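Researcher: Here's the sequence for the chain we discussed earlier.
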Amino acid sequence: MAEAAVSYVAERLIDLLQKKIVFLKNVRQGVEGMQDELVRMKCFLKDADMKQEEDEAATIRNWVSEIRAVAYHAEDDAVGLEKHVSSVVSILLKEDNRLRVASIVGMGGVGKTTLAKEVYNQTQIRDKFDTRAWLYVSQDHKPMKIIKELILQLANPEEDKVKIVDTMDKLSEASLDKMLQRRLKDTCHLIVLDDTWTTEACDLIVRSFPDNDKSSRLLLTSRRKEVALHADPHATPYKLEELSEEESWELFLKKVFAEDRECPQDLVDVGKEILEKCDGLPLAITVIGGLLAGKKKQRSEWQRVQRGLSSYL
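Model: Thanks. This is the structure I predict for it:
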């Protein structure tokens, strides 16, 4: 089967790489990264072999989450983000030994994931939390799949991740919860639950995290304020607003005119009319800006885009 083939290749490749390049500096991280990718490939092919559509969809969602996070971490949604990063970092570092849930809320495309990713990678956050993980929840979440992905992320570099996957596949939901709690029990951890839609998702996922009196935090992003309040009624959700007119124009120029960031005078009015349709949403501005960046800088060309703006957005 494809699963067995990938498992064999993964094991042989890692053994070979570790033997051949052990003397090189900073190479272990790269080897471990490759090992993680091969484990994910194994999971994916295992799902395909078994023809279980739900499992396959869950694995694909995890891959999409990683791609999404990388894309959002680019300098494009960085416009005007510094003040928000500082505020959310302060919330996470607030003195409180209990497990707390911090939330970022706002409409779709406003940059919640971007903000969460920037916060996640801040030096202060890296120093504070000895264990961190990122989970993409989504509307069609499967709690057991999310818990499995988290356990895999929490595994030590020297652990056999293929063996962990095989072990988890045999466990009940209650046993998976216990496995996760054992791994988190003595850690100060930060877990991001990105794109959480329902209160039911909060109940099913958050219950798996132990309150170990270590000042651990969950960071949740959601379009719905009621979900954030349900996750932690004692915490005030951080509302991420749309970009201002000035910030929107700055992002637009960065995306369309990457080198000089200046718009020809004869295109300014059309550009601002196009920008109005984006409603200050960084994702919309990035999509349209990327489209215009690949077109001729001619008024007729921009007007053609403007006429078809609804379909692009």
